[in-house]
Structures are given as structure tokens and as C-alpha cells.
Amino acid sequence: MVDLPDAILLRSADPPDGYLAAFDEVGLRAVCEPVLSFAFPRQDAFTDRLTRRADYEGVVATSPRVAAALGRAFEEQEALAQAWRGAPVYAVGPKTAGRIRDVGLDPKGADAGSADALAARIIDDAPTAPLLFLCGNRRRDTIPRRLRDADIPFEEMVVYETHPRTDLTLPSSDGSAWLVFFSPSGIDAVEASGTVALDTYRLAAIGPTTGGALEDAGHGVEAVADTPSPDGLVSAIYEETEG
């Protein structure tokens, strides 16, 4: 018999991992299982775009992969890193903000809690020069739509591609284990695998966007984190587990 953990987190993990530690602190055992792979096929074009620093007021970073793309560009050209230091970088969530700090930039809005709230923060700041909106090939429309509606100038560039893993397998649960989704792309990957019995798990989401995507796909969601963070996720799941 497979020894199921209390929660399977559909994400990659770099030790020490804050999510695993947060679950452990409340006596729950969690493991991470990545469902996506990422590619950076436009790195040269992205590096060229970054040389136009004077054209932009700042950056919108939609995921940790954007920070990875920036890090790759800065490693190739140290002058780019210097040019962008001090520029506002609007980051969705604390994980993305942390990765942005790691590449030497200053994140803003990490405490907003959602793409919609971050868009409101950008609109309140009222940038006059264009923002460089960096995203993946499967990005949601929340931030671009809000910025367009508010006449906030921005230029979009896809800097990474998301692909579902083709070898994903997860054990069936007895109905007590949690399966935690961290993005709508993760939902697509699990459904495409055809190997995961979602109805045998209790489902949780890192935030309202992912929770809504689960519901749109016809799945019940028992727990949604109030903030996209280890503490926010664990609090939501622990409350349901103990209740």
C-alpha cells in the first residue's frame, strides 16, 4: 500500500522549501510533485528588449519564471542588471517577489494577494511611461485587461513557455489526502495526464484565480488560501482538516 502524504503540492520545490516547512509545523506531511516544465525559447529577443531601459517605467512580473528569464539575461550582460536596478517591478505573490529580489531588483505589490489586486496597485501608481509586462505563453488576461481599461500603457512580451509533464502519475487517495493546485496550468496538466483520479482527493488552491479555474472545470474546491503564501495555504487547509 502506498504511504500517502497529507497533501501533495503540485509544484516544484527548492530546499529549504517554505511550503513543506509550514505544513510540518502544524503536523501535516506534504510532498511536492511538479506538473509542469518550462522553456525559455526567446531569450535573445528578451535580452534585446531589456536594452531599451529608457523606454519603460518598470516591469510587471507574473511568475517566478519571469524572474528566471531576467536572471538569465542579467548573467549574459551585467550592464543590463545595473540599468534596471531601482526600477519598480510589480510582482504577483511573495514567491515571485522573492525571486525578483534574488536577481537584484525591487519588487512591489507582493502583498496584494491576487492579480486583480496587483492591477489595482499599478493603476493607483498611475505610471506614465509603458510598463514591460512579462509573462508566459499561458498567462491569464486579468492584469492586461485591467491596465487597458485604465489606459495604463504597457508592452507585453512572452519570455517563457509552460508545458505539461507527459509522465505525471499520482496514487489514488482514500478521500483524506489533499491535492493542491498552484496555477490554472497545473489543472490543465493534471487533466491532460489522464492518470489522476481527482475525485479521490480533497482539492485546494493557492488563490482565487486557481480556485475559480478548478470550479470552472467542474471540480469542488474545499480550501482556497487567503494569501498566496505558505502560511495562507496551510491555514486554509488546516482549518478544513481540523474542522
Account of the 3D structure:
Strand 7 (131-136), helix 7 and strand 8 (154-164) form a beta-alpha-beta unit. The protein is α/β, with parallel strands linked by helices. It starts with 6 loop residues before the first strand and ends with a helix. Helix 3 crosses helix 4, helix 3 (64-76) packs parallel to helix 5 (94-102) and helix 6 packs parallel to helix 7. The radius of gyration is 19 Å and the shape is globular. The chain is 40% helix and 20% strand. The longest helix has 13 residues, at 64-76. The protein contains 10 helices and 11 strands. 42% of the residues are buried. The chain folds into 2 domains: 7-35 and 168-242, Rossmann fold (3-Layer(aba) Sandwich); 39-163, Rossmann fold, CATH 3.40.50. The strands form 2 sheets. Strands 3-8-7-4-5-6 form a 6-stranded mixed beta sheet. It has a 5-stranded parallel beta sheet with strand order 2-1-9-10-11. The mean pLDDT is 92.
Please write the string of helix (H) and strand (E) elements. Answer: EHEEHEHHEHEHEHEEHEHEH
Return the average pLDDT rounded to an integer.
Answer: 92
How many helices? The count is 10
Query: Roughly how many Å apart are the termini?
Result: 27 Å
Percent of residues in helices:
25-40%
**Shape, principal axes of CA atoms:** globular
Question: How would you characterize the largest beta sheet?
Answer: 6 strands, mixed
Domain count? 2
Category from helices, strands and their pairing: alpha/beta
Strand content: 15-25%
Tell me the number of strands. Answer: 11
How do the strands of the widest beta sheet line up side by side?
Answer: 3-8-7-4-5-6
Radius of gyration: 19 Å
CATH top level assignment of the largest domain? Alpha Beta
CATH architecture of the largest domain: 3-Layer(aba) Sandwich
- The name of the CATH topology of the largest domain is Rossmann fold
Low-confidence stretches: none
